[in-house]
Write a structure and sequence with these properties.
- The structure is a homodimer of 311-residue chains.
- In chain A, 37% of the residues lie in helices and 21% in strands.
- Chain A contains ten helices and twelve strands.
- In chain A, the strands form three sheets. A five-stranded mixed beta sheet of chain A has the order 3-2-1-4-7.
- In chain A, helix 7 packs across helix 8.
Chain lengths: 311, 311
């Protein structure tokens, strides 16, 4: 009888770990350092050791554990094969097989954004929905798409890479992916700063925003205070993201969009700018989609990883 | 032992019917008229009668038939519930249940574009692929998305409605869906004519195209003959469709795009304009996707319907 599972969220600096019961209650939560040196050769052994140490500490046997779910910061296909993972120094190999051999239990790996989406569906802002899109607005823009309760992985693990949808011709700066005009260049924290700086360069209007030091948080705080220039920034952000999500809805027709990541701390006001730009351009079959904020924060990854291995 | 199945493709004027063996060979193919009067009340009984007549003619018993698959010109959810079907006069009801009762065999219904995509995957231009997007360029632009061998239906049957992705701000004319600036307004047969007329209005260049009578076929024939104005039209078409498909790839990361519909008769040259606009803006994980032409033509629907019920 399976009583437990582990959810692991591998980041470039720390690895978040969670011990869950099979109903999704967190029994323990801790972090270990990500040792990326030597092509990240220590990462999986470190995870295996952390899992085994925890089982010893809690007197848990392998027979009681459903397995270990893992979110990885790079494309992972449906078989668990990771196709290069720059942040960890990893090349191509099968995470399910390799970590599975180390722990002697079933392992299921997925892309971290997709796995986080599964977490928000299971225990976060997407509860009650089987078809949803989770958008993470942080330093970049990540996405995870859940269709009929399962992650949309894509042919080679690049499903849900919505931050790199082309939304603007003529953008002079390059995105991290090498293209120009990606959604991420306008809807991420750094994207909001980019929009703000461009508007601040040209405007004569009074504003609390300072072009030298402006952050995404400054912009949203100023929007809430009624700052006219900040509202212009929010409008542009809302148009890029609202129209981007409308395109995504035209493809997958989700029940809900769940918005998370640091930028989403701005709260409901952010959703309002997205929704008002979404509705006029979306196909009517997706017009009444629900917009919600993510609720699990940095824990979405461990929850989703646990759900992934529970199935 | 199941030996046969029926594939039915319901259109606004005719209903295409096919009798298949379970390996996907067409044993017989015929059409009946779509009687749309009285809220389309006769459509399902007419299909049931056509199925029964064919079974009598061929001495096939119900025990030998896996079921009846049906493609319907409107949104159909995963349970077979049709949510209004304007072309047939239908309101909301469950096609699987209603036709199932009439024929006394399993029935599976889906949206016609999604079902056609399943057909192209099974026996057409998408053979060998499990994750693909089929784009139908006809009077409108339809789409069908296959993930892991199954149709992406969406929350209420509007999955794959890619013709209504917003691709252009400031479009003065309305799309059939009521929005402005939909992909369909530029990439369909009528969309190509729209682009051509707008270019012809302004250009001084010599061209074989005539603004009063130009068709999509005229444009592609002129492109092949090297007509400079027609090439401008093809470039614009390619930019809209190429960038639209790149956005779709950012969402689902397919193995292949399969392009069908009347416009696709232009052939490989059409794909070249799409691909060259797709590659520069798509996320690198989807850059090497395969572009192929659909091969089943008007039969994609009956093939896909058969596959739908065979599972």
């Amino acid at each position: 009888m399976k009583k437990y599972c582990f959810g692991v969220d591998v980041g470039g600096t720390t690895i978040k770990m969670g011990l869950f019961d099979v109903d999704g209650n967190v029994l323990d939560k801790w972090e270990i350092v990500t040792r990326t040196e030597n092509g990240g050769v220590n990462v999986l052994p470190d995870i295996a050791k952390a899992v085994e140490d925890k089982m010893t500490e809690k007197s848990i046997t392998k027979e009681e554990v459903a397995g270990v779910g893992v979110g990885v910061p790079g494309p992972v296909d449906a078989k668990g094969i990771v196709h290069r993972c720059v942040n960890l120094g990893w090349d191509e190999f099968n995470v399910n097989d390799k970590l599975g051999q180390l722990v002697g239990m079933p392992v299921m790996a997925g892309n971290d954004a997709n796995v986080a989406a599964l977490g928000e569906m299971w225990k976060g802002g997407g509860q009650g929905h089987n078809d949803l899109v989770v958008v993470t607005l942080g330093t970049g823009v990540g996405g995870g798409i859940i269709i009929n309760g399962k992650m949309l992985t894509g042919a080679n693990g690049a499903g849900g890479e919505i931050g790199h949808i082309h939304v603007q011709d003529g953008e002079p700066e390059e995105c991290g992916c090498g293209n120009k005009g990606c959604l991420e260049q306008y809807a991420s924290a750094t994207g909001i700063v980019r929009i703000a700086k461009r508007i601040l360069e040209k405007t004569q209007q009074a504003t609390v925003l300072n072009a030298d030091s402006v952050t995404a948080k400054d912009v949203w705080d100023a929007v809430k205070a009624g700052d006219a220039v900040a509202i212009q920034v929010a409008e542009q952000f809302g148009k890029y993201l609202g129209e981007g999500l409308a395109a995504i809805a035209g493809v997958v027709n989700p029940e809900a969009f769940v918005i998370g990541g640091g930028v989403s701390k701005a709260g409901e006001i952010l959703l309002s700018y997205v929704e008002k730009n979404y509705k006029p351009v979306v196909f009517h079959g997706s017009r009444d989609v629900k917009f919600a904020l993510a609720t699990l924060g940095n824990d979405a990854g461990i929850f989703g990883a646990a759900k992934l291995v529970l199935g």
